[in-house]
């Protein structure tokens, strides 16, 4: 999964000599939270809505409105931008980009080519979209979590699906550090073989799902088997401006 396949290519950039007033207008007009800043076309920094908010409030209390507008028109992006921001390349993996964001507590990264020109931007929203697509929740409301003790048991898992004539929409697995302890003393296998597995079968009726769950319980430790309804999700209330 590469950054180039999930980034937003139509990224808005501004020259570092652009006024903050202009940046405020661009942020509001396009409903974005960050703007890559360039010098001679190449990335030189990044400005976020938070950067701008940190500049404007203190000035409001000491200046008249016309003075504030003049001040903001004179202040340039290069005066408040984060210089030499963390970036990724289009052929970096999305996982790498996600780790960069997580470890640095940032919500978006400019994507540049080897010459330093901005070719896109990838944000937390893009990561969420990828995650949701991987899980398959849009295609199947069912999820089952279980523990396998050895990779060889995957064959047994797939055989159950084959026997019931079912297909898998998604299959996710984590290694032993995410797995729960095994209670069955007869299965004395090394801990590195344990895998916590999350599966989403194709959308089926309740009866078929219950049959699948019971068949899996005969072979594996099943932690949960649930059905989720995303047809009526709560909607965020947007306050009137």
From TrEMBL:
SUPFAM superfamilies referenced in this protein's UniProt entry, alphabetically: CBS-domain pair
Cross-referenced SMART domains: CBS
The entry's keywords: CBS domain, Repeat
Alphabetized InterPro entries for the sequence: CBS_dom, CBS_dom_sf, CBS_domain-containing
CDD domains: CBS_pair_AcuB_like
Source organism, top-level taxon: Bacteria
PROSITE patterns named in the record: CBS
UniProt key word Glycosyltransferase: no
Occurrences of domain CBS (ranges): 7-62, 81-140
Bilayer-spanning residue ranges: none
Protein name: CBS domain-containing protein
